[in-house]
TrEMBL record:
GO cellular component, one term: membrane
Protein's recorded name: Potassium transporter
Organism of provenance: Zea mays
An example Gene Ontology molecular-function term: potassium ion transmembrane transporter activity
Cross-referenced Pfam families: K_trans (PF02705), K_trans_C (PF22776)
Record-annotated K+ potassium transporter integral membrane domain positions: 4-325
Chief localisation class: membrane
Keyword Ion transport: yes
Amino acid sequence: MSTDVVVIVAVFILIGLFCMQHYGTDKVGWLFAPLVLLWFILIGSVGLVNIRKYNSSVLKAYNPVYIFRYFRRGKSEIWTSLGGVMLSITGTEALYADLCHFPVLAIQFAFTLVVFPCLLLAYTGQAAYIIDNKDHVVDAFYRSIPEAIYWPAFIIATLAAVVASQATISATYSIIKQALALGCFPRVNVVHTSKKFLGQIYIPDINWVLMILCIAVTAGFKNQSQIGNAYGTAVVIVMLVTTFLMVPVMLLVWKSHWILVVIFLVLSLTVELPYFTACINKVDQGGWVPLVIAITFFVIMHVWHFCTVKRYEFEMHSKVSMAWILGLGPSLGLVRVPGIGFVYTELASGVPHIFSHFVTNLPAIHSVVVFVCVKYLPVYTVPAEERFIMKRIGPKNYHMFRCVARYGYKDIHKKDDNFEKMLLDRLLIFVRLESMMDGYSDSEDLTVMEHKAKRSTRSLQLIEKAGGNNTMSSTGDLSYSSSQDSIVLAKSPLTGNSLTRYSSQTPGDELEFLNRSKDAGVVHFLGNTVVQARRDSGILKKVAVNYVYAFLRKMCRENSVIFNVPHESLLNVGQIYYI
């Protein structure tokens, strides 16, 4: 076969592999371990046969004296040859990643009893074959396989390469998911393909990007040595990064003595730095590819994380105080029109700043306002009866509530057609249960102010309850603590009575009011905080924030798509935050 035919076949195998990712590895995963075990047994057996058949004296290579004699020659080609030797130990960097999925003892047994001996036999057998067949050094592996088992070995080798590729793809999904959880990567769709295993996921966007990159590298290089150089550079840098990251872990997490840390660092760098210096010399021969990809993803992740953190800090520090809402009165300073408004927010506590933007820019607001926060939990599914957590915000006549909707990783909110109905039903149940609690409330439930006043040590007096209207009189005023989302009764320096009235509604009246609002219709409010760089910012910051981050926000999934909000009842309200 010519090189072009091999490349075409490899590209088709890659396309088939990536197209099958959405099915998940749950159904075929049981084949991976037997295939890899069969692969190691095969290469170890072939190596043993070649040692006995061609040149058993090659076993002298295990004597470390020969490596010193090799380097003593002092030629530059000898040192750079370590870059090729690096390819023989690729895969060892995955040992740290394997610790997330397998016990330490299992990895130690597999590496010590299977992987390491079989690899030694395979490389030693190839060396014995090359000594007698120096012209076959380019494809020594397949040339050294006995003719009787050539095609079975070829099939097993191809399947083992597919399994290794699948491991790389799955690891990429896992890394992207962890970056998403840390807020270091734009929002992408994560599909869980297994009910049993949380780690078996599929990310369509990353899948197709990875496929394009793999095909570009395969078809672009057409040369195994260039691909090997790229792989070796990536592996040795991963090893170095892992070593340096282990230092703070040993010091801060494990509380290890600094002498042990120094010993670990010196031993690790003694092995890794020579390989690193050898691979650096091959950057122009294919090693530049992983560096370019790494820099690109680093810029994307850094810009996204920086802007996302700034945006979240702005929303956290700009939460609307309850004192401001109470100062607006039950009408919130607007016309309260019949209906229910769902205000979506990322904050699970407090009133988001975007709500004040609504109030100051809209002429009217709905008679019932529900702040909805959707949270995804690391569980398979959340039962429907436990999905919604309801709380009241402010006095009863304000008709403001908070709802935290919880979903498992297999619950698809996008296909939840009964979301409105389920949420409204839970709201009605909450109001009924609240009336049965007889004055008990939590830190955010402000429905019975008399109960809080009785427990307060401040100067607050209840003077009367008459005519079904609860009246509260006090020499103190109301202030709000945003850190606890609760009203704090503070003593006022002013003299006289400060009278605050709260209209009383019976549970039946409020339920009827909610039903009438429900019949009037539901509108979904989505806040869109646009982040931009200040005018006095540097050129790099302006490019990163105004262009790179804006492009990533435009490309990632919109909230309206995530929440499956119907466009006919969607209202987007934006605001600009300068950093």
